[in-house]
Specification:
The chain is α+β, with helices and mostly antiparallel strands. The chain has five helices and seven strands. The chain has a seven-stranded antiparallel beta sheet with strand order 6-5-4-3-2-1-7. The protein is globular.
Length: 148
């Protein structure tokens, strides 16, 4: 899995495009572990608050995890991510350096199927409009290009 993490790290903060099924999309690669850790730090600040206070606090401190979960996932997808079966790594159709992920006209979420344990070449899944489909046998098979 470390080679996979290196591949993802190499793609972070770059202007990228990906071609899937003959269509080209902007690709925004994300570091899900970092996003989840930052969310956890924010959630620790809500300890001792009641539900209403938590809601108000999160309105002012919305995390990347909350935005991605709300706009790119449904409950079934979110559950697989929480259960460490799928690992989000790419958002399709956003600007190259989005200020936020609250985009309803996105082109989907790329995830790695890590349900079979630690492997260096997990299957790539596209999750869009509440449907998951396999788009590549591994990240290496994806047609990803840097844009100037």
């Amino acid at each position: 899995m470390s080679n996979l993490q290196e591949t993802i790290q190499d793609l972070l903060n770059k202007k990228l495009e990906i071609t899937l099924s003959g269509k080209t999309y902007n690709l925004h690669v994300i570091d899900w572990k970092k996003i989840a850790d930052e969310h956890e730090d924010v959630m620790e600040q809500t300890e001792g608050m009641d539900d209403e206070e938590v809601g108000e606090f999160l309105c002012d401190h919305e995390t990347e995890l909350i935005q991605i979960t709300e706009y790119f996932m449904n409950d079934a997808c979110d559950e697989k991510v929480e259960d460490d079966k799928w690992l989000p790594f790419g958002l399709l159709g956003l600007s190259h350096h989005p200020d936020h992920y609250a985009e309803t006209n996105h082109e989907g979420l790329l995830l790695l199927d890590i349900s079979k344990g630690k492997q260096d070449h997990p299957t790539v899944i596209l999750f869009k409009k509440d449907k998951a489909q396999i788009v590549a046998a591994s990240v290496e098979e994806l047609d990803i290009r840097t844009v100037n």
